[in-house]
Amino acid sequence: MPDRAEYWEQRYQEAQIGWDLQGPTPALQAAAEAFPKDARILIPGCGMGWDGEALHRQGFTQVYLSDWAPSAKAHFLERVPDFPEDRFITGDFFTWADNEAVHGQFDYILECTFYCAIPPAMRADYAQAMAHLLRPGGQLLGLLFTFPLTEQGPPFGGSLEEYTLRFGAPFRLDRLGPSPLSIAPRAEKEVFFCATLHTS
Fold first, then answer.
1. Which of 83-94 are b and which e, b meaning 16 or more Cβ less than 10 Å from the residue's Cβ?
2. CA distance 145 to 155
3. Cα–Cα dist 32/24, whole Å
4. The whole model's pTM is what?
5. What is the rounded distance in angstroms from the CA atom of residue 63 to the CA atom of residue 108?
6. CA–CA separation, 102 vs 163, rounded Å?
7. Residues 80 and 61: beta-carbon distance below 8 Å
8. 93-115, pLDDT tens digit by residue?
9. What three-state secondary structure class fits 29?
10. Which domains does the chain have, with CATH numbers?
11. How far apart are the C-alpha atoms of 111 and 93, rounded to whole Å?
C-alpha cells in the first residue's frame, strides 16, 4: 500500500520512480522566488529532493524535506552532502506531523506529487496535517493533478471541485488554476494552487 514506507522503498529499490523529473519543478521554483531566504520551508514526499536541493543551493537556510523511503534520503545526501541530515525526515509523514513539537513551525509547505501519491481516503488527514504544521498565515502551495480520480494509482487524480472543498476552512484558497510553468507531459493534467492558513 502507498501509505507504507516499505512500498515506497521497494519502488526506489526497483527504480520505479516515474514521477522523478531529474531536476527541480519549475512552478515551485518560481513561487519560491518570493520567499524570504530564512523562511521555514517543508517539502513533504520530496522524493529525490531536487526542489530542496535547488532551494538549499540558492541560499535558503531553513529547508526541510520528508519522504517515506530511506533510499530517497540516501540518494539526496550523496548529491548534497552539506545539507543538514536531520532536516530530511524519513518514515511515516503523518506520525511525524502529529507531533505537537512541529506544529506551527513552517511558513511554507510545497506540494508536488505527494497529495496524489497517498490513498484518497487519507486526503482529509493530509489537509489536517498541513494545517497543524503551518504557522497562522502560512501557505500551502504547489501542483495538484486533475485527471479523473479512480481506485487505480498512485498517482491518484482529483478535481477542482474536490480541491476547492479540501482547501477551504481552515485555509483560504487564494489560487487554483493552470500554471504556465507546468512541464509538457503534465500541462493539461494539473493545476497550481495556493492556500493560506487563517490567522484566527
1. beeeebbbeebe
2. 9
3. 12
4. 0.93
5. 10
6. 25
7. no
8. 999 999 999 999 999 999 999 99
9. helix
10. 5-16+23-197 (3.40.50.150)
11. 14
